[in-house]
Amino acid sequence: MNWNTCLRPPARVLSEWEKDFGVTGVTREKFSSQVEEVWKSLGVSSDESQRNPNNQVLWDGCTALGYTPGTDFQVIERNAVGCEQRCDFCTYGCRYACKKSTSLTYLPRAQALGARTIFNSRVDRVRIEGGAAKGVEATATSDGRTSEFEVSARAVVVACGGIETPALLLRSGVRDKNVGKFLRLDPTVAVGGVFERPMDPWRGPPQTVAVWKHIDLDGSYHGFWVEAAPAHPGLFALTVPWEGGREHKDFMVENYSRSCASIVLLRERSWGQVSVTKDGNPSVTYDLVSKDRETLVKGMAETARILAAAGATKVWSTHNDPAVAGDGSRALSPGDVDRFSDEVKSRGVSYNRLMLFSAHLMGSCKMSSDPRTGPTAPTGELHAVRNLYVGDACVFPTTPAVNPMVTIMAMAARTAESINASLGGQAKNQLASQD
User: How far apart are CA 434 and CA 376, in angstroms?
Assistant: First the structure.
């Protein structure tokens, strides 16, 4: 259930993970082969990366500004095969089974090798005895009735996402002050644009162009990148600033089909924290440091510049009191964009004044060879509990500076090998005998 965006983890980030956090091997051929295995398993290619108008404006704008294709901006490859632009609903699932999601790839392979799946259930806690994971305690729901059950295991892998993974570990009594810390979100803002030509931003592949020119603003590889967002009516309507119902309706009627939706994603320095309430539910705190706020402002201004170069007649920010350039009657001039940039800068990024999105939840159980700085060892096993592993984006020491799906899966494959080695190779032999 995502936008099919497949990007390899940048070498710069992997070097950072290995050098600064002791995540050994991620810069070497072995991990590269795991990335490529994910790529192959998902059927990733550019065959289904056609540029609909919503993506084409980024390509046209970058070209007009003299950006270098393949370096400053690129085609996004996707895990889709045989789609042929038949339905426009990649975001919500694929009725033709062209999206090569885990339901068509890894899960059938796991089932063929003997994996068992329990549905409609929630793990309440990991059972920990003598400093080691022994299984899970869970609750199943069926026909409105609930029943509790347990699963015993030699190893437990937690992969509940950036918020629920640390919440589960905390509910389970894991004693590590770093569990839940360093939550990263790839904070995201939107910039809308209106054109004279039809955009139909809900049609076609969701994301097929990425703009990387500003990912490294100050030499520390912290910056922003720009992509398109598939703007189905509900999502688009959510982002349109308004002062009244009639104004909102009129804008949608007059502009929606001629509008594009572009998003600015931030590789942030900031981080948040996940804790649990007395009843065990997750609670999240997060704030942006001033440097990250400044970077988002730069991202909004640059995105407006790209859209104007592609022929936009109006652009707007998603502030409550939006910054606006143009009235839709003519193409925007450089002066219009400069004034928009000044308006965005004056409004800034402040509490309850700008619609801010979280694109990807990561880092809240980050890997580190030093247990004082991260709760998860480079093997994927928690420092504090034996045989308890984290298998999702929580383990990222920092954000990967790309949409993280492929990186998540490759890191999970890396952790799976660690588990197999820890179990003495028995699991691998059992799978081989059934293959």
Answer: 32
- Alpha carbon distance 29, 40 (integer Å): 16
Rounded CA separation 138/86 (Å): 40
pTM of the entire predicted model: 0.95
Q: How far apart are CA 345 and CA 296, in angstroms?
A: 10
Q: How far is residue 235's CA from residue 243's CA, in Å, rounded to a whole number?
A: 18
Q: Please report the sign of the dihedral spanned by the C-alpha atoms of residue 381, residue 382, residue 388, residue 390.
A: negative
Beta-strand ranges (E) seen in 153-240 are 156-158, 181-183, 187-194, 209-211, 224-228
Q: How far apart are CA 13 and CA 134, in angstroms?
A: 34
Residue 222 · residue 267 · CB < 8 Å: yes
Q: Roughly what angle, to the nearest 10 degrees, separates helices 53-64 and 290-309?
A: 90
Question: Please, what is the Cα angle at 358 between 59 and 199, to 5 degrees?
Answer: 35
Structure tokens at 58: 């980024």
Give the pairing of strands 156-158 and 388-390.
parallel
pLDDT tens-place string over residues 290-343: 999 999 999 999 999 999 999 999 999 999 999 999 999 999 999 999 999 999
Q: Are 336 and 326 in contact (CB under 8 A)?
A: yes
Closest CA to 262 of 65, 80, 74, 56: 56
The β-bridge relationship of strands 145-152 and 132-142 is: antiparallel
- Domains, in order of start, for the chain: 49-77+185-358 (3.30.410), 118-182+361-434 (3.50.50.60)
